[in-house]
Amino acid sequence: MTSPAGTIRLYRPDPNSICESKRCGRATFTVHPASPGRIRIAAYGDVDAVNGRALGHYVEAHTGTSQQLVLDLRAVDFFGTQGFTALYYISVQCTRRDVDWMLVGSPPVHRLLRICDTSSELPLCTDLASALARLDQITQCRGRIASAG
């Protein structure tokens, strides 16, 4: 007896999950479409050892829905070292999937990155407007390269 055929999603999120929210520990993660080809994922509350890995996996699960990502951590009240590990993981996943991304952080996020990311490798922006502007610049540069090639 054969089983019915079906579709299994690998590496790509279900398009219907684009507006889902997830609570993990003392944090909530939400994803919002920002514009065509761009999403904004926001975290609220505390990012620590309980949910740092969950943040990384949440972002990874949604990076297949767009070419650009803004990770909005402005509402994060506490940001532990597991949060930094999550950011490094997110950076690797975005690079592998060719997703341009920018990070906007709260004072606790900025404080930890001053300590852990001394060479400023993560794409940290001071506010949401500058993050969106930098992503727009990347889009324009890619458009010029594609038209010249």
UniProtKB/TrEMBL annotation:
<dbReference type="InterPro" id="IPR036513">
    <property type="entry name" value="STAS_dom_sf"/>
</dbReference>
<dbReference type="InterPro" id="IPR002645">
    <property type="entry name" value="STAS_dom"/>
</dbReference>
<dbReference type="Pfam" id="PF01740">
    <property type="entry name" value="STAS"/>
</dbReference>
<feature type="domain" description="STAS">
    <location>
        <begin position="45"/>
        <end position="115"/>
    </location>
</feature>
<protein>
    <submittedName>
        <fullName>STAS domain-containing protein</fullName>
    </submittedName>
</protein>
